[in-house]
Amino acid sequence: MMNIKDYEFWFVAGSQHLYGEEALQNVEKNTKEIAEYLNDTGKLPYKIVFKGVMTTADGITQFMKDVNYNDNVAGVIVWAHTFSPAKNWIRGTKLLQKPLLHLATQYLDEIPYATIDFDYMNLHQSAHGDREYGYINARLGLNNKIVYGHWRDAETVAEIASWEDVAVACNESFNIRVCRFGDTMRDVACTEGDKVEAQIQLGWTVDYYPEGDLVEYVNAVTEAEIDAEYKKLADMYTMTVGDNQKEHFEHSVRYQLREYIAIKRFLDEGGYNAFCSNFQSLHGLEELPGLASQLLMRDGYGFGAEGDWKIAALTRLLKVLSHNDRTVFMEDYTLDLRKGHEAILGAHMLEVDPTIASDKPRVEVHPLGIGGKDDPARLVFTGAEGDAVDVTLADFRNGMKMIYYPVDCRKPEAETPYLPVAKQLWTPKCGLKKGSAEWIKAGGEHHTVLSFAVSCQQLRDLAAMLGLELVEIN
Hints:
Elements: E1 8-14, H1 21-40, E2 47-54, H2 57-68, E3 73-79, H3 90-95, E4 100-104, H4 118-123, H5 126-139, E5 145-148, H6 154-173, E6 177-181, H7 195-202, E7 205-209, H8 211-220, H9 223-236, E8 238-239, H10 246-270, E9 274-276, H11 291-298, E10 302-304, H12 309-322, E11 327-336, E12 343-346, E13 362-365, E14 377-380, E15 386-396, E16 399-410, E17 424-428, H13 432-442, E18 447-451, H14 456-466, E19 469-472
Parallel strand pairs: 1-2, 1-3, 3-4, 4-5, 6-7, 6-9, 8-13, 9-10, 16-19
Antiparallel strand pairs: 11-12, 11-18, 12-17, 13-14, 15-16, 15-18, 16-17
């Protein structure tokens, strides 16, 4: 459902002709072996493809051009097996437009004291070859990733795998297309932003459509299509009629499914993978999309409430990074300020992704109280426990700023019988007082993306790749 292409990463070794043809043959053999081993671990989310030994400026430049213009290649991995004169890398590296990982490793994980000689020393020069290569990348001001360690170590493999996911997210950022149904919520500041700057820096396309265009799709959905989705919904979740008349409950659920099918069709036909809605802008719709939005996020689409297109795109971006694993749209809702209980209760009116549910979500129908429309169906559930990150994106006149803190997530201390929403409790790891004060000072907004699957290091790498200012509250 995420519609992510089967990316690959090209792997090359740097060397030179100074040590003879036999040495170059060994460099090629060793690098192939590393690529095969890394692929065979089954730990990498994307395949590594060995593309040769780079020895000349012309060859390196052509290689980088080939990387740029192959849409299936998400990035480059370079290893300085021997001493690779770094001036050869300048032109090609300056042309490179995709993520770069410098794998600082060595073929053997030991020093063979009993047999080491000058032939061995000439061949296995990573110790200073990596420093020569690293110098030119630093001189060029690259935001490249460095993974240091033996290629067979589980930690090294895990770091490469983590970086691959970030590099793919960086590539996919330029494929994010947000559909705005209506504008942003009136009089709200933080949901605004420079859509042109977002496209220049992050690759995001943000387009507006009036609700009437969506209404045409909603009205065109057939009863048979709704019947099929209703059955799938009932098989997956608990249908809770509650105090509603059965006819009222079923009508609300079916209307949300009508919206789900219509929005999905609208997005897919237009090539969009994220969207935002606004309860102040529902002309021609019976209900604010609630259950509909939750199901679309479950399927991997990005979403932002109140017209917040930045968070819709960020949700999609981090869903790509996490393979849509427990990564959800969220909002800071209300606080527990008692000593020993300090926490934020995250929720929203309707739209929180069920992939973080710790219990079986229930389909319920309740009045909303805002928007002036019919009672919408929604999924009601309790969130998960564990370590997570909470991330937002704010637009300042001098550029976009990513703000985040790591958080401890837990279940609410009690049920909320009069608040029938999806809910998640969390506390910043640095403490509620410090974390919240620094968040507010940095200009972080109330809409966020909460992820149990994205790491702090991945956020650092992603911000570096995209040229985003990063505020870490730690």
